[in-house]
Structures are given as C-alpha cells and as structure tokens.
Design a protein that fits this description.
Helices cover 39% and strands 27% of the residues. It is α/β, with parallel strands linked by helices. It has 2 domains: 155 residues, 3-Layer(aba) Sandwich (Rossmann fold), CATH 3.40.50; 66 residues, no CATH class. The chain has a 6-stranded mixed sheet with strand order 6-7-8-3-9-10, sandwiched between helices. Strand 1 and strand 2 form a beta hairpin. Keywords: Amino-acid transport, ATP-binding, Nucleotide-binding, Transport. It comes from Thalassobaculum fulvum. This is ABC transporter ATP-binding protein.
Length: 237
C-alpha cells in the first residue's frame, strides 16, 4: 500500500532523512521507533506532503505522491493524527470531527460519526464541549477520531501515547488494535513507547538519525538485544 524509497528530506541545509526505505502492506500495523530527533515525525510529514522529499520516491496505492499537495494526498486516503494532537481548541468536539470529514463522502457522515463515537464513547459524551477543555487523553481520542472522519485507508499516528497516563495509553492502543482488526485499516505508528508499539505491530522499523538501521516483526524487535538496550530497558539510543 505504501512504499518509501530512498527518501531524503531537508530542513534548509540540515538533512533530516538520509535515504529512508520503508513499506507498509495493506492491513498491517507497522511501528516506527526511535529516539527524539531521529526523524520519525519528519518521515510522516514527508508522506503527507507537509515536508517535501528532495530525493527519493513515495508511492501510495500504486500512485506516486512524492510531490503532491497534502489535501490531494488526504483525498487519496491518507490521514494523519499529528504529534501533540493539534485539535482546534475553540471548536467543539463535534466541530472538530466535522473538520476531519471535509474530504469524505457527505452521505456517509452520520455513519462515520457513529463509528467514531462507538470507538470513543467519551467523545459522544463531550460532543458539545470545546476541544481545549478536554483532558489530554480525550484530546488524543479526538485527534484520532478527526483523522478517521476522512475515511482513510492508511492511518498515520504520530506519538499517540505522548504525555498520557498509563491507563489512558492502554485505552489508546486498544483503540488502534480495534481500528486495524475490525476495519482492516492499515496503520503506520510512530512511537517512543517501543514496548507498546512493538507488541501491537505486525512489523517494525528502527530509525536512528534519519536512517533505518533495523527492521523485523514486532516480536523479533522486542527480543533483539540492541533494541532492548536502547529502547526497552531504560537505555537511550
């Protein structure tokens, strides 16, 4: 479904991605782990067209999207729940969800909204509440729900557990599992919480200073001594 080939992305003269190769097959959950500053968010932003690859190629569902605009990529079926949630704080929960539905078929709005409320019942309870007054966990649910309202076939999740209490983290990862299992939605998950991410993922990649250094199944990476030392046992990459 998604193929990233030899992608180099720069911020000015700084090379953030240094020839990244990665693929995500239909129906998979793929985890991308790495330390702060490794380039994980940059890769997602490059896939979305927010940052532009200077070299390399990105293909989605058989079509090249390397140079496409972000709104066109969303219309193709790619949605992103960004790091830091970035909801619209002055809008209500319902208004935030409507914003996510702008590129979707309006005839399926009610169906999609009901599916989001079934996945996150708390959002239904808070439907008329302003987004900025929600708890951190509720805002993360809203960010994911807003992405789902665009009817994506590929969901990009950037640090969904960041800053959340352990119980809420468990709820968020269970929701991701349900999205994949019940809807067969393909997920590319960027996470610093390597333990949760690799337990959930079918496959994973390790990104270090803009380069993929390791790949394997989620279980293989969980059991890898280098991954354990750097990401699972209190170490730092």
């Amino acid at each position: 479904m998604l193929q990233v080939e030899g992608v180099h992305t720069f911020y000015g003269a700084i090379e953030a991605l240094k020839g990244v190769d990665l693929h995500v097959d239909e129906g998979e959950i793929v985890a991308l782990i790495g330390a702060n500053g490794a380039g994980k968010s940059t890769l997602l932003m490059t896939i979305c067209g927010v940052a532009k690859a200077r070299r390399g190629r990105i293909t989605f569902a058989g079509s090249e999207i390397t140079a496409e605009r972000t709104d066109d990529i969303v219309r193709r079926g790619v949605a992103c729940s960004p790091e830091g949630r970035r909801i619209f704080p002055r809008m209500t929960v319902l208004e935030n969800l409507r914003m996510g539905a702008l590129t979707a078929d309006p005839e399926r709005y009610d169906e999609n909204l009901a599916a989001v409320f079934e996945l996150f019942p708390r959002l239904k309870e808070r439907a008329q509440q302003r987004g900025g007054t929600l708890s951190g966990g509720e805002q993360q649910m809203l960010a994911i729900g807003r992405a789902l309202m665009s009817e994506p076939t590929l969901l990009l999740l950037d640090e969904p557990s960041l800053g959340l209490a352990p119980l809420v983290v468990k709820q968020i990862f269970e929701a991701i599992r349900r999205i994949n299992a019940q809807r067969r939605m393909t997920v590319l998950l960027v996470e610093q919480n390597a333990h949760h991410a690799l337990r959930l993922a079918h496959r994973g990649y390790v990104l270090v200073t803009g380069q993929i250094t390791m790949t394997g199944t989620g279980q293989e990476l969980l059991e890898n001594p280098e991954v354990k030392a750097a990401y699972l046992e209190g170490g730092h990459a």
